[in-house]
Amino acid sequence: MSDFTVGETDFLLDGRPVRLLSGALHYFRVHEEQWGHRLALLRAMGLNCVETYVPWNLHEPHPGDFRDVEALGRFLDAAREAGLWAIVRPGPYICAEWENGGLPHWVTGELGARARTRDERFLRYVDRWFRRLLPEVTSRQLDRGGPVIMVQVENEYGSYGSDAVYLAHLTDLLRAEGVTVPLVTSDGPEDHMLTGGSVPGLLATVNFGSHARVAFETLRRHQPGGPLMCMEFWCGWFDHWGGEHVVRDAEDAAAALREILECGSSVNVYMAHGGTNFAGWAGANRPGGELHEGPLEADVTSYDYDAPIDEYGRPTEKFWRFREVLAAYHADPLPEPPSAPAPLAAPADVERIAWASLPAVLETLGTPERVHPVPPTFEELDIARGLVRYEVDVPGPRPPYPLTARGLRDLAVVYVDGERAGVLTEEEPQLKKPVAGPARVELWVESLGRVNYGPRSGEPKGITGGVLHERQFLHGVRARALDLDAFEAGVDAVPFAPLPEDGTPGLYRGTVTVRGAGDARLELPGWTRGFVWINGFNLGRYWSAGPQESLYVPGPVLKEGENEVWVLELQESNQGTVRLAPL
Protein backbone atom coordinates (compact mmCIF):
# COMPACT_ATOMS: atom_id res chain seq x y z
CA MET A 1 0.00 0.00 0.00
CA SER A 2 1.17 3.54 -0.71
CA ASP A 3 1.44 6.50 1.61
CA PHE A 4 0.59 10.11 0.64
CA THR A 5 1.78 12.89 2.95
CA VAL A 6 2.37 16.64 3.10
CA GLY A 7 6.08 17.49 3.16
CA GLU A 8 7.87 20.74 3.91
CA THR A 9 7.83 21.82 0.27
CA ASP A 10 6.08 19.07 -1.69
CA PHE A 11 3.41 16.42 -1.55
CA LEU A 12 5.11 13.07 -1.00
CA LEU A 13 4.13 9.66 -2.35
CA ASP A 14 6.03 7.01 -0.42
CA GLY A 15 8.53 9.72 0.46
CA ARG A 16 9.07 10.98 -3.10
CA PRO A 17 7.88 14.41 -4.34
CA VAL A 18 4.76 14.33 -6.49
CA ARG A 19 2.70 17.05 -8.12
CA LEU A 20 -1.08 16.77 -8.17
CA LEU A 21 -2.59 17.55 -11.56
CA SER A 22 -6.25 17.28 -10.70
CA GLY A 23 -9.53 18.09 -12.39
CA ALA A 24 -12.99 18.63 -10.94
CA LEU A 25 -15.69 16.24 -12.12
CA HIS A 26 -18.81 15.87 -9.98
CA TYR A 27 -20.26 12.37 -10.05
CA PHE A 28 -23.75 13.79 -9.38
CA ARG A 29 -23.66 15.93 -12.53
CA VAL A 30 -22.76 13.08 -14.92
CA HIS A 31 -24.84 10.02 -15.75
CA GLU A 32 -23.24 7.06 -14.00
CA GLU A 33 -22.87 5.06 -17.21
CA GLN A 34 -20.71 7.89 -18.58
CA TRP A 35 -18.30 8.23 -15.62
CA GLY A 36 -15.70 5.99 -17.23
CA HIS A 37 -15.64 7.97 -20.46
CA ARG A 38 -15.28 11.32 -18.70
CA LEU A 39 -12.55 10.02 -16.37
CA ALA A 40 -10.62 8.67 -19.35
CA LEU A 41 -10.79 12.15 -20.88
CA LEU A 42 -9.21 13.57 -17.71
CA ARG A 43 -6.31 11.14 -18.11
CA ALA A 44 -5.95 12.09 -21.77
CA MET A 45 -5.81 15.78 -20.88
CA GLY A 46 -2.80 15.08 -18.66
CA LEU A 47 -4.40 14.85 -15.21
CA ASN A 48 -3.46 12.29 -12.59
CA CYS A 49 -6.25 13.04 -10.10
CA VAL A 50 -9.99 13.78 -10.00
CA GLU A 51 -11.77 15.95 -7.44
CA THR A 52 -15.41 15.78 -6.44
CA TYR A 53 -17.73 17.49 -4.00
CA VAL A 54 -20.45 15.57 -2.15
CA PRO A 55 -23.93 17.20 -2.01
CA TRP A 56 -25.49 16.45 1.37
CA ASN A 57 -28.98 17.54 0.25
CA LEU A 58 -28.98 15.07 -2.65
CA HIS A 59 -28.24 12.15 -0.34
CA GLU A 60 -30.35 13.16 2.70
CA PRO A 61 -33.35 15.06 1.28
CA HIS A 62 -35.26 14.59 4.53
CA PRO A 63 -33.91 13.94 8.05
CA GLY A 64 -32.56 10.39 8.26
CA ASP A 65 -33.73 9.57 4.70
CA PHE A 66 -30.40 8.56 3.16
CA ARG A 67 -30.44 7.90 -0.59
CA ASP A 68 -27.75 6.21 -2.65
CA VAL A 69 -24.83 7.41 -0.53
CA GLU A 70 -22.98 4.52 -2.14
CA ALA A 71 -22.81 6.50 -5.40
CA LEU A 72 -19.71 8.27 -4.09
CA GLY A 73 -18.01 4.95 -3.47
CA ARG A 74 -18.86 3.69 -6.94
CA PHE A 75 -17.42 6.87 -8.43
CA LEU A 76 -14.21 6.51 -6.45
CA ASP A 77 -13.94 2.92 -7.67
CA ALA A 78 -14.34 4.19 -11.24
CA ALA A 79 -11.58 6.74 -10.62
CA ARG A 80 -9.25 4.01 -9.43
CA GLU A 81 -10.05 1.89 -12.49
CA ALA A 82 -9.23 4.92 -14.67
CA GLY A 83 -5.82 5.23 -13.01
CA LEU A 84 -6.60 8.45 -11.15
CA TRP A 85 -6.13 9.55 -7.57
CA ALA A 86 -9.07 11.30 -5.94
CA ILE A 87 -9.67 14.34 -3.74
CA VAL A 88 -12.97 14.31 -1.85
CA ARG A 89 -14.60 17.52 -0.64
CA PRO A 90 -17.56 16.46 1.54
CA GLY A 91 -18.43 19.91 2.88
CA PRO A 92 -20.90 19.81 4.58
CA TYR A 93 -21.20 23.03 2.55
CA ILE A 94 -19.92 22.81 -1.04
CA CYS A 95 -21.12 25.94 -2.91
CA ALA A 96 -20.60 24.44 -6.41
CA GLU A 97 -23.46 26.49 -7.89
CA TRP A 98 -25.60 23.72 -6.40
CA GLU A 99 -28.98 24.14 -4.69
CA ASN A 100 -28.41 25.68 -1.22
CA GLY A 101 -24.68 25.04 -1.51
CA GLY A 102 -25.36 21.38 -0.76
CA LEU A 103 -26.99 21.99 2.62
CA PRO A 104 -30.42 20.34 3.04
CA HIS A 105 -33.35 22.75 3.03
CA TRP A 106 -34.57 21.24 6.28
CA VAL A 107 -31.29 22.17 7.97
CA THR A 108 -31.19 25.80 6.90
CA GLY A 109 -34.96 26.12 7.28
CA GLU A 110 -34.66 25.21 10.94
CA LEU A 111 -31.36 26.83 11.79
CA GLY A 112 -30.97 29.82 9.47
CA ALA A 113 -27.67 31.59 10.17
CA ARG A 114 -26.78 28.99 12.82
CA ALA A 115 -25.85 26.59 10.01
CA ARG A 116 -22.11 26.35 9.41
CA THR A 117 -21.39 27.24 13.05
CA ARG A 118 -20.75 25.46 16.34
CA ASP A 119 -24.53 25.33 16.99
CA GLU A 120 -25.20 22.01 18.69
CA ARG A 121 -28.15 21.11 16.47
CA PHE A 122 -26.16 21.75 13.31
CA LEU A 123 -23.22 19.71 14.55
CA ARG A 124 -25.56 16.87 15.49
CA TYR A 125 -26.97 16.79 11.94
CA VAL A 126 -23.47 16.96 10.42
CA ASP A 127 -22.17 14.21 12.70
CA ARG A 128 -24.99 11.88 11.67
CA TRP A 129 -24.43 12.64 7.97
CA PHE A 130 -20.66 12.20 8.07
CA ARG A 131 -20.92 8.94 9.97
CA ARG A 132 -23.13 7.63 7.19
CA LEU A 133 -20.98 9.06 4.38
CA LEU A 134 -17.38 8.65 5.45
CA PRO A 135 -17.15 4.83 5.21
CA GLU A 136 -17.47 5.34 1.43
CA VAL A 137 -14.29 7.45 1.66
CA THR A 138 -12.20 5.82 4.37
CA SER A 139 -12.44 2.35 2.84
CA ARG A 140 -11.03 3.75 -0.39
CA GLN A 141 -8.06 5.69 0.94
CA LEU A 142 -4.67 5.24 -0.66
CA ASP A 143 -3.27 3.31 2.28
CA ARG A 144 -6.07 0.76 1.80
CA GLY A 145 -5.53 0.32 -1.91
CA GLY A 146 -7.99 3.00 -3.00
CA PRO A 147 -7.57 6.29 -4.89
CA VAL A 148 -8.37 8.83 -2.14
CA ILE A 149 -5.30 10.90 -1.27
CA MET A 150 -6.84 14.02 0.27
CA VAL A 151 -10.01 15.21 2.01
CA GLN A 152 -11.05 18.84 2.39
CA VAL A 153 -12.47 20.39 5.56
CA GLU A 154 -15.56 22.55 4.79
CA ASN A 155 -15.28 24.77 1.71
CA GLU A 156 -14.22 28.39 1.32
CA TYR A 157 -15.31 28.93 4.90
CA GLY A 158 -13.38 32.17 5.15
CA SER A 159 -15.72 33.69 2.58
CA TYR A 160 -18.58 33.11 5.02
CA GLY A 161 -17.60 32.78 8.66
CA SER A 162 -14.92 32.74 11.32
CA ASP A 163 -16.04 29.98 13.73
CA ALA A 164 -12.77 28.21 14.50
CA VAL A 165 -14.57 25.92 16.96
CA TYR A 166 -16.78 24.65 14.12
CA LEU A 167 -13.80 23.98 11.84
CA ALA A 168 -11.97 22.19 14.66
CA HIS A 169 -15.04 20.02 15.24
CA LEU A 170 -15.13 18.99 11.57
CA THR A 171 -11.41 18.22 11.64
CA ASP A 172 -11.75 16.07 14.74
CA LEU A 173 -14.82 14.34 13.32
CA LEU A 174 -13.06 13.41 10.08
CA ARG A 175 -10.11 11.98 12.00
CA ALA A 176 -12.34 10.15 14.48
CA GLU A 177 -14.26 8.53 11.64
CA GLY A 178 -11.08 7.14 10.09
CA VAL A 179 -9.77 9.69 7.61
CA THR A 180 -6.00 9.15 7.61
CA VAL A 181 -5.02 10.95 4.39
CA PRO A 182 -4.04 14.65 4.57
CA LEU A 183 -6.78 17.13 5.45
CA VAL A 184 -6.73 20.54 3.75
CA THR A 185 -8.75 23.74 3.57
CA SER A 186 -9.43 25.96 0.55
CA ASP A 187 -10.18 29.67 0.45
CA GLY A 188 -9.81 32.73 -1.70
CA PRO A 189 -6.32 34.32 -1.64
CA GLU A 190 -7.32 37.20 0.62
CA ASP A 191 -6.25 37.84 4.20
CA HIS A 192 -9.72 37.74 5.77
CA MET A 193 -10.61 34.56 3.88
CA LEU A 194 -7.44 32.73 4.88
CA THR A 195 -7.66 33.80 8.52
CA GLY A 196 -11.33 32.77 8.69
CA GLY A 197 -11.08 29.48 6.81
CA SER A 198 -7.70 27.98 7.74
CA VAL A 199 -7.23 25.36 10.46
CA PRO A 200 -3.97 25.21 12.48
CA GLY A 201 -1.96 22.17 11.49
CA LEU A 202 -3.75 21.64 8.16
CA LEU A 203 -2.45 22.63 4.75
CA ALA A 204 -4.25 25.68 3.35
CA THR A 205 -4.89 25.90 -0.40
CA VAL A 206 -6.24 28.79 -2.47
CA ASN A 207 -8.81 29.27 -5.23
CA PHE A 208 -8.49 31.72 -8.14
CA GLY A 209 -8.66 32.09 -11.90
CA SER A 210 -5.59 34.20 -12.65
CA HIS A 211 -2.58 36.03 -11.16
CA ALA A 212 -1.15 32.91 -9.55
CA ARG A 213 2.04 34.53 -8.25
CA VAL A 214 0.09 37.21 -6.40
CA ALA A 215 -2.28 34.61 -4.94
CA PHE A 216 0.56 32.42 -3.70
CA GLU A 217 2.35 35.42 -2.20
CA THR A 218 -0.75 36.05 -0.11
CA LEU A 219 -0.91 32.40 0.90
CA ARG A 220 2.73 32.42 1.95
CA ARG A 221 2.07 35.28 4.36
CA HIS A 222 -0.27 32.94 6.21
CA GLN A 223 1.50 29.63 5.58
CA PRO A 224 5.27 30.02 5.05
CA GLY A 225 5.86 26.31 4.47
CA GLY A 226 4.23 23.32 2.83
CA PRO A 227 3.42 22.60 -0.81
CA LEU A 228 1.52 25.16 -2.85
CA MET A 229 -1.81 24.18 -4.34
CA CYS A 230 -4.55 25.95 -6.24
CA MET A 231 -7.56 23.87 -5.21
CA GLU A 232 -9.81 25.62 -7.73
CA PHE A 233 -8.32 27.04 -10.90
CA TRP A 234 -11.37 28.70 -12.44
CA CYS A 235 -10.81 28.04 -16.11
CA GLY A 236 -14.35 29.08 -17.10
CA TRP A 237 -17.54 30.21 -15.40
CA PHE A 238 -21.23 29.40 -15.07
CA ASP A 239 -24.34 30.95 -16.67
CA HIS A 240 -27.49 32.52 -15.25
CA TRP A 241 -30.97 32.44 -16.73
CA GLY A 242 -31.56 35.67 -18.61
CA GLY A 243 -27.84 36.40 -18.90
CA GLU A 244 -25.13 35.82 -21.45
CA HIS A 245 -23.22 32.61 -22.05
CA VAL A 246 -19.80 33.02 -20.42
CA VAL A 247 -16.69 32.06 -22.41
CA ARG A 248 -13.02 32.32 -21.46
CA ASP A 249 -10.43 32.35 -24.20
CA ALA A 250 -8.59 29.04 -24.38
CA GLU A 251 -5.13 30.58 -24.78
CA ASP A 252 -5.72 32.92 -21.84
CA ALA A 253 -6.81 30.01 -19.64
CA ALA A 254 -3.82 27.91 -20.75
CA ALA A 255 -1.44 30.75 -19.92
CA ALA A 256 -2.96 31.02 -16.44
CA LEU A 257 -2.55 27.26 -15.94
CA ARG A 258 1.06 27.48 -17.10
CA GLU A 259 1.74 30.24 -14.55
CA ILE A 260 0.31 28.12 -11.73
CA LEU A 261 2.56 25.19 -12.60
CA GLU A 262 5.62 27.42 -13.05
CA CYS A 263 5.15 28.46 -9.43
CA GLY A 264 5.79 24.84 -8.46
CA SER A 265 2.18 24.42 -7.42
CA SER A 266 -0.20 21.52 -7.69
CA VAL A 267 -3.54 22.34 -9.28
CA ASN A 268 -7.15 21.29 -9.48
CA VAL A 269 -8.81 22.49 -12.70
CA TYR A 270 -12.30 23.71 -11.84
CA MET A 271 -14.11 22.45 -13.82
CA ALA A 272 -12.38 19.86 -15.95
CA HIS A 273 -15.85 18.65 -16.93
CA GLY A 274 -18.87 20.46 -15.55
CA GLY A 275 -21.78 18.24 -16.54
CA THR A 276 -25.44 19.06 -15.94
CA ASN A 277 -27.70 20.20 -13.10
CA PHE A 278 -30.26 17.48 -13.66
CA ALA A 279 -33.57 17.39 -11.75
CA GLY A 280 -33.64 21.07 -10.82
CA TRP A 281 -30.59 20.99 -8.54
CA ALA A 282 -29.08 24.22 -9.94
CA GLY A 283 -28.38 26.88 -7.34
CA ALA A 284 -28.59 30.65 -7.52
CA ASN A 285 -26.52 33.69 -6.66
CA ARG A 286 -27.07 37.22 -5.42
CA PRO A 287 -24.27 39.30 -6.96
CA GLY A 288 -23.93 42.91 -5.95
CA GLY A 289 -20.85 44.06 -4.09
CA GLU A 290 -19.04 42.32 -1.28
CA LEU A 291 -22.27 41.59 0.61
CA HIS A 292 -23.87 39.63 -2.24
CA GLU A 293 -27.25 41.19 -1.53
CA GLY A 294 -28.33 41.92 -5.11
CA PRO A 295 -31.23 40.50 -7.12
CA LEU A 296 -31.42 36.74 -7.44
CA GLU A 297 -29.69 35.26 -10.48
CA ALA A 298 -30.68 31.64 -10.98
CA ASP A 299 -28.17 29.21 -12.51
CA VAL A 300 -29.07 27.42 -15.72
CA THR A 301 -29.46 23.67 -16.02
CA SER A 302 -26.24 23.26 -17.97
CA TYR A 303 -23.05 23.27 -15.92
CA ASP A 304 -20.87 23.32 -19.00
CA TYR A 305 -18.71 25.97 -17.26
CA ASP A 306 -16.83 26.55 -20.52
CA ALA A 307 -14.69 23.66 -19.26
CA PRO A 308 -12.04 21.81 -21.29
CA ILE A 309 -14.51 18.93 -21.65
CA ASP A 310 -17.91 20.34 -22.57
CA GLU A 311 -21.30 19.36 -21.15
CA TYR A 312 -21.66 16.63 -23.79
CA GLY A 313 -18.29 15.05 -22.97
CA ARG A 314 -16.43 16.43 -25.98
CA PRO A 315 -12.87 17.83 -25.88
CA THR A 316 -12.82 21.55 -26.63
CA GLU A 317 -10.03 23.83 -27.86
CA LYS A 318 -9.30 24.49 -24.18
CA PHE A 319 -8.78 20.73 -23.68
CA TRP A 320 -6.05 20.65 -26.31
CA ARG A 321 -4.33 23.79 -25.00
CA PHE A 322 -4.35 22.37 -21.47
CA ARG A 323 -3.06 19.05 -22.74
CA GLU A 324 -0.09 20.83 -24.31
CA VAL A 325 0.72 22.53 -21.00
CA LEU A 326 0.26 19.40 -18.87
CA ALA A 327 2.20 17.09 -21.21
CA ALA A 328 5.42 18.79 -20.09
CA TYR A 329 4.91 17.35 -16.60
CA HIS A 330 4.73 13.73 -17.73
CA ALA A 331 7.67 11.51 -18.62
CA ASP A 332 5.60 9.39 -21.01
CA PRO A 333 3.28 10.40 -23.86
CA LEU A 334 -0.28 11.09 -22.79
CA PRO A 335 -2.99 8.58 -23.77
CA GLU A 336 -5.25 9.50 -26.64
CA PRO A 337 -8.78 10.65 -25.77
CA PRO A 338 -11.45 7.94 -25.89
CA SER A 339 -13.94 7.95 -28.72
CA ALA A 340 -16.99 10.11 -28.18
CA PRO A 341 -20.21 8.33 -27.19
CA ALA A 342 -22.48 7.63 -30.12
CA PRO A 343 -24.94 10.45 -30.81
CA LEU A 344 -28.61 9.99 -31.56
CA ALA A 345 -28.83 8.61 -35.08
CA ALA A 346 -31.66 10.82 -36.33
CA PRO A 347 -33.93 13.60 -35.04
CA ALA A 348 -37.30 12.61 -33.67
CA ASP A 349 -40.36 14.64 -32.67
CA VAL A 350 -42.29 14.01 -29.47
CA GLU A 351 -45.92 13.09 -30.09
CA ARG A 352 -48.02 14.67 -27.34
CA ILE A 353 -50.98 12.49 -26.52
CA ALA A 354 -52.44 13.81 -23.27
CA TRP A 355 -52.49 16.74 -20.86
CA ALA A 356 -53.35 17.34 -17.22
CA SER A 357 -53.98 20.74 -15.65
CA LEU A 358 -51.68 21.97 -12.90
CA PRO A 359 -54.51 21.69 -10.32
CA ALA A 360 -55.04 18.06 -11.38
CA VAL A 361 -51.32 17.32 -11.05
CA LEU A 362 -51.25 19.02 -7.67
CA GLU A 363 -54.30 17.08 -6.52
CA THR A 364 -52.65 13.79 -7.44
CA LEU A 365 -48.97 14.28 -6.65
CA GLY A 366 -48.98 17.21 -4.23
CA THR A 367 -49.14 17.46 -0.47
CA PRO A 368 -52.49 17.78 1.32
CA GLU A 369 -53.94 21.27 1.41
CA ARG A 370 -53.79 22.95 4.80
CA VAL A 371 -54.84 26.36 6.07
CA HIS A 372 -52.20 28.62 7.59
CA PRO A 373 -52.54 32.02 9.24
CA VAL A 374 -49.84 33.39 6.91
CA PRO A 375 -48.16 31.90 3.83
CA PRO A 376 -45.82 29.09 4.91
CA THR A 377 -42.37 28.93 3.37
CA PHE A 378 -41.18 26.05 1.24
CA GLU A 379 -39.06 24.98 4.20
CA GLU A 380 -42.07 24.88 6.52
CA LEU A 381 -43.83 22.70 3.94
CA ASP A 382 -40.71 20.48 3.59
CA ILE A 383 -40.31 21.28 -0.10
CA ALA A 384 -36.83 21.11 -1.61
CA ARG A 385 -37.44 21.81 -5.31
CA GLY A 386 -40.77 22.53 -6.92
CA LEU A 387 -43.67 24.88 -6.42
CA VAL A 388 -46.39 25.84 -3.95
CA ARG A 389 -49.93 27.00 -4.67
CA TYR A 390 -51.02 29.64 -2.20
CA GLU A 391 -54.75 30.40 -2.24
CA VAL A 392 -56.31 33.28 -0.32
CA ASP A 393 -59.63 35.10 -0.33
CA VAL A 394 -59.96 38.86 -0.70
CA PRO A 395 -62.96 39.91 1.41
CA GLY A 396 -65.67 42.04 -0.06
CA PRO A 397 -67.31 44.09 -1.10
CA ARG A 398 -64.35 46.43 -1.47
CA PRO A 399 -62.96 48.53 -4.34
CA PRO A 400 -59.88 47.54 -6.36
CA TYR A 401 -56.65 47.76 -4.38
CA PRO A 402 -53.05 46.70 -5.19
CA LEU A 403 -52.22 43.09 -4.37
CA THR A 404 -48.63 42.36 -3.34
CA ALA A 405 -46.71 39.16 -2.56
CA ARG A 406 -44.32 40.55 0.03
CA GLY A 407 -40.94 38.83 0.28
CA LEU A 408 -41.59 36.72 -2.82
CA ARG A 409 -38.98 34.11 -3.62
CA ASP A 410 -38.85 33.58 -6.47
CA LEU A 411 -41.57 33.75 -9.11
CA ALA A 412 -45.38 33.54 -9.00
CA VAL A 413 -48.01 33.04 -11.69
CA VAL A 414 -51.17 34.65 -10.31
CA TYR A 415 -54.83 33.87 -11.00
CA VAL A 416 -57.80 35.92 -9.81
CA ASP A 417 -61.12 34.05 -9.82
CA GLY A 418 -59.56 31.48 -12.13
CA GLU A 419 -58.29 33.97 -14.70
CA ARG A 420 -54.59 34.59 -15.12
CA ALA A 421 -53.71 38.03 -13.78
CA GLY A 422 -49.93 38.25 -14.19
CA VAL A 423 -46.49 37.00 -13.24
CA LEU A 424 -44.80 38.39 -10.12
CA THR A 425 -41.11 38.37 -9.23
CA GLU A 426 -39.02 39.47 -6.29
CA GLU A 427 -38.32 42.78 -8.06
CA GLU A 428 -41.93 43.25 -9.20
CA PRO A 429 -44.09 41.68 -6.48
CA GLN A 430 -47.29 43.69 -7.14
CA LEU A 431 -49.96 42.91 -9.71
CA LYS A 432 -50.27 45.58 -12.37
CA LYS A 433 -54.07 45.51 -12.19
CA PRO A 434 -55.66 46.12 -8.77
CA VAL A 435 -57.99 43.47 -7.35
CA ALA A 436 -61.52 44.16 -6.08
CA GLY A 437 -63.21 42.06 -3.44
CA PRO A 438 -64.61 39.57 -3.01
CA ALA A 439 -62.12 37.50 -5.03
CA ARG A 440 -60.21 34.24 -4.88
CA VAL A 441 -56.50 34.64 -5.55
CA GLU A 442 -54.09 31.80 -6.42
CA LEU A 443 -50.33 32.34 -6.45
CA TRP A 444 -48.36 29.47 -7.98
CA VAL A 445 -44.88 30.14 -6.59
CA GLU A 446 -41.77 28.43 -7.97
CA SER A 447 -38.33 28.25 -6.41
CA LEU A 448 -35.66 29.01 -9.02
CA GLY A 449 -32.88 27.60 -6.85
CA ARG A 450 -31.60 28.42 -3.38
CA VAL A 451 -28.64 30.74 -2.99
CA ASN A 452 -25.38 28.78 -2.84
CA TYR A 453 -22.88 31.47 -1.84
CA GLY A 454 -22.64 34.44 0.49
CA PRO A 455 -24.56 35.71 3.53
CA ARG A 456 -27.94 35.06 1.88
CA SER A 457 -27.23 31.33 1.59
CA GLY A 458 -30.04 29.25 3.00
CA GLU A 459 -32.68 31.99 2.74
CA PRO A 460 -36.21 30.54 2.64
CA LYS A 461 -38.35 30.20 -0.47
CA GLY A 462 -41.99 31.01 -1.09
CA ILE A 463 -43.96 34.04 0.06
CA THR A 464 -41.90 35.00 3.06
CA GLY A 465 -43.57 38.30 4.04
CA GLY A 466 -47.29 37.76 3.52
CA VAL A 467 -49.93 38.66 0.93
CA LEU A 468 -51.09 42.27 1.11
CA HIS A 469 -54.27 43.82 -0.27
CA GLU A 470 -53.54 47.51 -0.14
CA ARG A 471 -51.87 47.67 3.31
CA GLN A 472 -53.88 44.83 4.83
CA PHE A 473 -52.48 41.34 5.33
CA LEU A 474 -54.71 38.58 3.99
CA HIS A 475 -54.88 35.71 6.45
CA GLY A 476 -56.20 32.18 6.28
CA VAL A 477 -53.88 31.10 3.46
CA ARG A 478 -54.50 27.68 1.92
CA ALA A 479 -51.25 26.06 0.76
CA ARG A 480 -50.46 22.95 -1.20
CA ALA A 481 -47.04 21.93 -2.53
CA LEU A 482 -45.65 19.93 -5.43
CA ASP A 483 -42.11 18.67 -4.94
CA LEU A 484 -40.20 17.52 -8.02
CA ASP A 485 -39.35 14.30 -6.20
CA ALA A 486 -43.06 13.38 -6.33
CA PHE A 487 -42.60 12.47 -10.00
CA GLU A 488 -40.18 9.66 -9.15
CA ALA A 489 -43.13 7.31 -8.62
CA GLY A 490 -44.49 8.08 -12.10
CA VAL A 491 -47.57 9.88 -13.36
CA ASP A 492 -49.97 7.02 -14.06
CA ALA A 493 -52.29 8.20 -11.29
CA VAL A 494 -52.63 11.67 -12.81
CA PRO A 495 -56.02 12.15 -14.57
CA PHE A 496 -54.96 13.04 -18.11
CA ALA A 497 -57.31 14.54 -20.68
CA PRO A 498 -57.12 15.42 -24.39
CA LEU A 499 -54.76 18.23 -25.34
CA PRO A 500 -56.15 21.72 -24.77
CA GLU A 501 -56.57 24.09 -27.69
CA ASP A 502 -54.64 26.92 -26.06
CA GLY A 503 -51.18 26.98 -24.50
CA THR A 504 -52.38 26.52 -20.96
CA PRO A 505 -49.83 25.30 -18.38
CA GLY A 506 -49.91 21.74 -17.13
CA LEU A 507 -48.32 18.34 -17.54
CA TYR A 508 -48.02 17.19 -21.15
CA ARG A 509 -47.48 13.48 -21.71
CA GLY A 510 -46.15 12.04 -24.92
CA THR A 511 -43.87 9.56 -26.59
CA VAL A 512 -40.91 9.73 -28.92
CA THR A 513 -39.75 6.85 -31.10
CA VAL A 514 -35.98 6.49 -31.25
CA ARG A 515 -33.96 4.68 -33.87
CA GLY A 516 -30.29 4.61 -32.95
CA ALA A 517 -30.29 5.76 -29.31
CA GLY A 518 -27.43 8.02 -28.26
CA ASP A 519 -26.54 11.40 -26.79
CA ALA A 520 -29.03 14.08 -27.84
CA ARG A 521 -30.44 17.53 -27.20
CA LEU A 522 -34.07 18.19 -26.38
CA GLU A 523 -35.40 21.32 -28.08
CA LEU A 524 -38.57 23.08 -26.89
CA PRO A 525 -39.27 26.10 -29.15
CA GLY A 526 -42.39 27.95 -28.06
CA TRP A 527 -42.41 26.64 -24.49
CA THR A 528 -41.79 29.05 -21.61
CA ARG A 529 -40.60 27.49 -18.37
CA GLY A 530 -40.75 24.13 -16.68
CA PHE A 531 -39.18 20.68 -16.42
CA VAL A 532 -38.83 17.65 -18.70
CA TRP A 533 -38.57 13.94 -17.92
CA ILE A 534 -37.65 11.18 -20.37
CA ASN A 535 -38.36 7.66 -19.18
CA GLY A 536 -38.67 9.06 -15.67
CA PHE A 537 -35.26 10.81 -15.75
CA ASN A 538 -35.52 14.51 -14.93
CA LEU A 539 -33.42 16.44 -17.47
CA GLY A 540 -33.82 19.70 -15.53
CA ARG A 541 -35.38 23.12 -16.03
CA TYR A 542 -35.94 24.74 -19.41
CA TRP A 543 -36.68 28.46 -19.74
CA SER A 544 -37.16 30.65 -22.75
CA ALA A 545 -35.24 33.42 -20.92
CA GLY A 546 -32.03 31.78 -22.22
CA PRO A 547 -29.12 31.66 -22.76
CA GLN A 548 -29.56 27.90 -22.62
CA GLU A 549 -31.74 26.82 -25.55
CA SER A 550 -31.91 23.04 -25.19
CA LEU A 551 -31.49 20.30 -22.60
CA TYR A 552 -28.82 17.60 -22.70
CA VAL A 553 -30.15 14.06 -22.96
CA PRO A 554 -27.50 11.46 -21.99
CA GLY A 555 -27.58 8.48 -24.31
CA PRO A 556 -28.19 5.96 -21.50
CA VAL A 557 -31.51 7.68 -20.72
CA LEU A 558 -32.91 6.74 -24.14
CA LYS A 559 -33.88 3.32 -25.42
CA GLU A 560 -34.61 1.93 -28.84
CA GLY A 561 -38.22 2.30 -29.83
CA GLU A 562 -40.79 4.16 -27.77
CA ASN A 563 -39.72 6.51 -24.97
CA GLU A 564 -42.07 8.33 -22.60
CA VAL A 565 -41.77 12.11 -22.26
CA TRP A 566 -43.34 14.43 -19.66
CA VAL A 567 -43.23 18.21 -20.03
CA LEU A 568 -44.34 20.19 -16.98
CA GLU A 569 -45.07 23.69 -18.34
CA LEU A 570 -45.53 26.17 -15.50
CA GLN A 571 -46.44 29.36 -17.34
CA GLU A 572 -47.65 29.15 -20.94
CA SER A 573 -46.91 27.45 -24.23
CA ASN A 574 -47.86 27.77 -27.84
CA GLN A 575 -47.56 23.97 -27.89
CA GLY A 576 -44.61 24.17 -30.22
CA THR A 577 -42.47 21.24 -31.21
CA VAL A 578 -40.66 19.08 -28.67
CA ARG A 579 -37.82 17.45 -30.55
CA LEU A 580 -34.85 15.18 -29.91
CA ALA A 581 -31.89 16.29 -32.00
CA PRO A 582 -28.47 14.65 -32.47
CA LEU A 583 -25.51 16.45 -30.90
UniProtKB/TrEMBL annotation:
GO annotation, biological process: carbohydrate metabolic process
Pfam families assigned to the protein according to its UniProt record, in alphabetical order: BetaGal_ABD_1, BetaGal_gal-bd, Glyco_hydro_35
Active site (catalytic residues): E156, E232
GO MF annotation list: beta-galactosidase activity
All residue ranges annotated as the Beta-galactosidase 1-like first all-beta domain in the record: 375-477
Residue span(s) of domain Beta-galactosidase galactose-binding: 505-563
Record-linked Gene3D superfamilies: Galactose-binding domain-like, Glycosidases
Entry-linked PROSITE patterns: GLYCOSYL_HYDROL_F35
Transmembrane segments: none
Keywords per UniProt: Glycosidase, Hydrolase
Claim: Hydrolase is one of the keywords in the record: yes
Domain annotation Glycoside hydrolase 35 catalytic: ranges: 11-328
Assigned protein family: Belongs to the glycosyl hydrolase 35 family.
Protein name: Beta-galactosidase
Lineage: Bacteria, Bacillati, Actinomycetota, Actinomycetes, Kitasatosporales
